[in-house]
Here is the input.
Amino acid sequence: MANNRDNTPQEDESIFDKLGFSWSGMSPKGDPGRKKMHFSFWYFLMALVAFSLIQDYIVARQTDTVPYSVFKQDVVAGKIKNLVLTPQRISGIITKDGQGRKNWPFVTVRVKDPGLVKLLDAHKIKYTGHYESKWLSTLLSWIIPLAFFFIIWRVLISRVGGGPQGVLSIGKSHARVLADTGVRTTFKDVAGIDEAKQELAEIVEFLRTPEKFTRLGGKIPKGVLLVGAPGTGKTLLAKAVAGESGVPFFSMSGSDFVEMFVGVGAARVRDLFAQAKKQAPCIIFVDELDALGKARGMNPMGGHDEREQTLNQLLVEMDGFDATVGVIIMAATNRPEILDPALLRPGRFDRHVAIDRPDVRGREEILKVHVKGVKLSAEVDLAKVAALTPGFVGADLANLVNEAALLSARRNKGSVGMVEFQDAIDRIVGGLEKKNRMMNEKEKRIVAYHESGHALVAMSLPTADSVNKVTIIPRGIAALGYTQQLPTEDRYLMTREELLDRLSVLVGGRVAEEIVFGDISTGAQNDLQKATDIARSMVTEYGMSEKLGLVTYEKERRPLMLDTGSAPAKEYSDETAKDIDAEVSLLVEKAHERVKRILTERREQLEIVSQKLLEQETVTGDELRELVGKEFASQDDPDSAEKSMYGEASIGHA
Here is the structure.
């Protein structure tokens, strides 16, 4: 620990400072290895015991203890004077003992001897009695037990009610005030969600200059609800608002309010808002609001349970807000559909800020934030890394950068390269490589042809995503291989043609097995499940069936917590349900026939790609295009050769 004082004496420097000692103990300053001592009652007790031992073993040794018989002989010999008689012992002075010592104190045990007084009177020895007061022993007999029970009581109280989880403080809010911890997060630390930052900039401006809004009669929203998928940065954005505005930030999770004791949640809500009003202007942030604000009336047992009581108190407190006080409540949830409608109405959570998954530009900006402390090699292109990670949120990208840095350190490299980023993406998306998983030659050939079928179909169809890599290295728990595709751009809508092409790519592996081996395996189970989901959605949700027309047969899916427990009633006849099943099967069967025609025509390329996979286990997109040719389009679409099939973007599975 460094000493901040210079070598010149200071006027306020004490003698301890001059000697290099600190007030907290007698350990020298700058010596972190020594444990500091603190004065306490135990040190005083140790000193008292030591003093008693000195009295007993040093002072007491100057008094001789003699037998009673010797004492009587010395009385007869006239060697005793100044006796003090007590019921337990006799003490006095020996004028001269056998060792030549004079006037030496002695003590002997009092023996029942009725003739002792007569003997002393006969030899004219001066003696006196001694009265022992019992008040000290009586007092100690009361004080020591009381002190003992008092100490035990204090310890129990401190453990039961003194801490933040104690019984006596159970109704107190457990919110953390981040303004006191020195944590400073600003909008510079938040990237990829510019629209959300602009929405919350008004909150920051109100907390800084409230008179700007109150002057015109405007009112700031009482509550701001941040809605988004997990990991999109809702909590980080709330901290940034507090950091930008420089006001206290009360942070608490929704589950912290609810306890096993009735009434505790409501008491904590009252205490939290009381603390916030004392430190206004400030921000109250409730993370995971769905744990507290779940819609009332969903309790299957009925009644007014503790959770509903806590929610009612929160609604009352938000209604009692004064807009001019400067207390703003922010909350975050990734399940807004299960929140109570009374919580979402204007006057409570007035403003809803949706935080979506970042697009390719947003992902690049987020990566720039997370790589600030990472040493990157010159070859790293963050734009390409962002293109390889569609659907990744901020937490995923932070994990990606960390995984790449760990891989680089494991390989003893001086910087993080593009290879490490690619391997980290594969690890996050596909799982850990299982190179030690032994597959026999037959299984390995099946997997190689299966993945080659996916890749060739994807390269043959006009709107299918470009193939980035094909591998037969097992990953994760059950993946024996996978085909990685890159869409040309972030997509928010899909056409019927694109869905049919995606359906075809999914069944490509199964068809390749049929053509080559004349048999099928269980490896296509996941592909068939995805294909069936796409076909059913096309028929029942998107109205893409010519036979059934522009009708949707699926209601909006309700969350599990809002279900009544019974199966939802179908609003269409059994005949329609039969037609739906037939249309779904027809779509998948047409995709099967289409893919079978494509792979039969490309049988030679299928063999080439499969053999390459068996040789080196992984084939990149560029290597694949060199093997089969760049102009590789299906005859199903005569104009497909003119369409762009290759591009940069993100990752997908087939």
User: Anything to note?
Assistant: The longest helix spans residues 135-162. The chain is about 45% helix and 10% strand. The radius of gyration is 43 Å.
